[in-house]
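Quick one:
INPUT:
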């Protein structure tokens, strides 16, 4: 390799959209090489489990072909509390090598899964407040879930070399595009169709992560129920705000009520963060995911949380060649936040 490290493609397999992004490192700045997105039928992926793998494989293959992706090496990711657990713990001080040896033993006390069923990883964060202890972040990912996602990626012709976690990918996306404010707490909130990932950064470092099993599906389901319409029509109604035979006011009211439930869930996570961090403030929300695009959501989130909300711009610091349709990119930008974070990963990263 003459220019930088070997290229990989970031593939974010969501329950509503699969996204693919490939970046090129040109003397330390990133250029967009490939970007694509495809929509999945409902119920192929439920609660983070791939229920219909052959159709997911077909969707990935179609996406790779349409986006003209030729790189095989891929970074994929997992999320959701039934797949991944991230815990910050204080344990006796030891070297990285020593911890590698004893991680199973240390993790066993904190991880609610059978330790034989998970892959473990860790990062030493530094000395803890108490003497002889250090703070460590432990990540435990269920082997069967890793296997499900790795298998569909392989069957689609990819070589998954990195299995990341959505919350960490979001953090990488943030680091590329935003200046760290040392005194501030920023909450990255990713609202997908079935999941919300939250990662709170204090002075740019992650201090809290939490996934909740709610998302934009709540808007869709509320519309389906209220107007007795199909999933497809409800999705259309949500994204286009209006359809013949429906009053815009009624649609708005149904969406607002579902938004309130979603925001209540986000607030619960924020309360939990405040309770466990001696009542720290959250200064700003950076909103990612398709859920961020639902009409009326952003002002309501800002009003209910009392926090300034900014929509993520994961492409902000990435050079976009003229061959891309910039108007389209602007429309889908928050949806590709995780995929951008994955595309930033390089083989051999920890
Ligand atoms: N303008 C829009 N374009 C696309 N999706 C939108 C739009 N407005 C709202 N949405 C909603 O965003 C959600 C999809 O977002 P996203 O692609 O981030 O989810 P996902 O990653 O596929 O899902 P998850 O990670 O939760 O499994 C859907 O509920 C969709 O209806
Ligand atoms: Mg997602």
């Amino acid at each position: 390799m003459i220019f930088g490290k070997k290229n990989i493609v970031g593939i974010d397999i969501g329950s509503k959209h699969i996204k693919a992004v490939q970046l090129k490192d040109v003397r330390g700045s990133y250029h967009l090489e490939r970007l694509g997105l495809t929509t999945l039928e409902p119920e192929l992926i439920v609660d983070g489990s791939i229920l219909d793998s052959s159709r997911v494989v077909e969707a990935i293959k179609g996406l790779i072909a349409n986006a003209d992706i030729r790189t095989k090496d891929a970074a994929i990711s997992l999320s959701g509390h039934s797949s991944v657990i991230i815990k910050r713990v204080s344990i006796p001080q030891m070297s990285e090598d020593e911890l590698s040896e004893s991680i199973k033993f240390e993790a066993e006390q904190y991880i609610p899964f059978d330790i034989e069923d998970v892959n473990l990883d860790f990062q030493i964060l530094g000395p803890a407040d108490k003497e002889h202890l250090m703070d460590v972040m432990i990540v435990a990912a269920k082997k069967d879930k890793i296997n499900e996602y790795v298998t569909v990626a392989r069957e689609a012709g990819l070589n998954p070399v990195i299995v990341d976690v959505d919350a960490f990918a979001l953090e990488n996306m943030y680091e590329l595009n935003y200046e760290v404010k040392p005194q501030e707490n920023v909450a990255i909130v990713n609202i997908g169709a079935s999941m919300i990932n939250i990662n709170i950064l204090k002075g740019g470092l992650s201090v809290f992560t939490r996934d909740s099993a709610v998302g934009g599906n709540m808007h869709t389901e509320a519309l389906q129920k209220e107007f007795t319409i199909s999933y497809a029509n409800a999705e259309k109604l949500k994204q286009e705000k209006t359809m013949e035979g429906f009053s815009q006011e009624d649609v708005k009211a149904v969406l607002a009520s579902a938004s309130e439930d979603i925001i209540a869930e986000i607030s619960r996570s924020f309360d939990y963060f405040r309770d466990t961090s001696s009542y720290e403030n959250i200064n700003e929300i950076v909103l990612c995911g398709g859920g961020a695009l639902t009409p009326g959501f952003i002002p309501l989130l800002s009003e209910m949380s009392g926090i300034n909300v900014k929509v993520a711009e994961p492409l902000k610091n990435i050079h976009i060649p003229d061959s891309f349709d910039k108007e389209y990119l602007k429309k889908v930008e928050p949806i590709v936040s995780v995929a951008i974070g994955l595309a930033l990963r390089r083989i051999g990263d920890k």
